[in-house]
Design goal:
The chain is of the alpha+beta class. It has four helices and 16 strands. It comes from Stratiformator vulcanicus.
Length: 231
């Protein structure tokens, strides 16, 4: 049964939007879709979170991780990095979501595995929707997204063919950084184990990473994604 999960009730959902991925996609690409907040369709459920982004433990790590990932993709001439507002659609994953960070490779676009869809007005050279098995997705856990990020999206991103799923939880004293790799044989993600120095190997970015947290001069949390290139 389709459900709608509200973290804020101030959204009007058209009839039938939760009945299928295509119905939700039509709503998401219409002029009636909310311009703020995060609204995801995950296997028949619509999850709505209109809460403002918490800066210290959500916006902070997202920004620093996105910067390092972007620098690496540019070095490799690998693809493009999109933050927050890039919508990912997957028919096999029965999914339409806006990940915190999304990496699309040029190769996947050239070979047709990933398609870039234009906006509803079909303006040439513009696109608002990514469809297909992207290379890497990052989610930063917030208080309202714990089950969604750690359970529902973990399953949905695997079914969508996402090669790597990075999951960060910076809400508690112990900083959690999991790098999950797709294992077709076991039909699930497998957590990459850190080496003796705490680095996690990313096959997509051909490097190993460690996420650190310290206090900035103002006394608030500061994050740094340290990269080590192997070989």
């Amino acid at each position: 049964m389709s459900t709608v999960i509200f973290h804020d009730p101030d959204v009007q959902i058209p009839l039938g939007a939760a009945e299928s991925l295509e119905n939700f996609t039509a709503w998401a690409r219409s002029d009636h879709f909310p311009l703020r907040g995060r609204i995801d369709y995950i296997d028949g459920d619509i999850e709505i979170d209109m809460n403002a982004e918490e800066l210290a433990d959500h916006g902070g790590p997202k920004t620093h991780i996105a910067v390092e990932i972007t620098l690496r993709t540019v070095e490799l001439d690998l693809g493009e990095v999109y933050i927050s507002d890039a919508r990912l659609k997957s028919v096999p994953g029965n999914l339409s979501a806006e990940p915190d960070i999304l990496v699309v490779t040029y190769e996947s676009i050239r070979n047709g595995d990933v398609k870039l869809h234009p906006p509803s007005n079909n303006r040439p050279g513009k696109f608002t929707l990514v469809e297909g098995p992207v290379a890497l997705v990052v989610e930063i856990v917030s208080d309202s997204s714990v089950f969604k990020d750690k359970e529902k999206l973990r399953t949905a991103y695997f079914e969508a063919g996402v090669a790597e799923y990075w999951l960060v939880d910076a809400r508690e004293e112990a900083l959690q950084f999991d790098l999950l790799t797709r294992d077709p044989e076991s039909s699930q993600y497998v957590e990459r184990q850190p080496d003796e120095n705490g680095f996690l190997r990313s096959d997509v970015l051909d490097a190993a990473f460690r996420l650190e947290r310290s206090l900035n001069p103002a006394g608030y949390n500061r994050y740094r994604l340290i990269r080590r290139e192997d070989g």
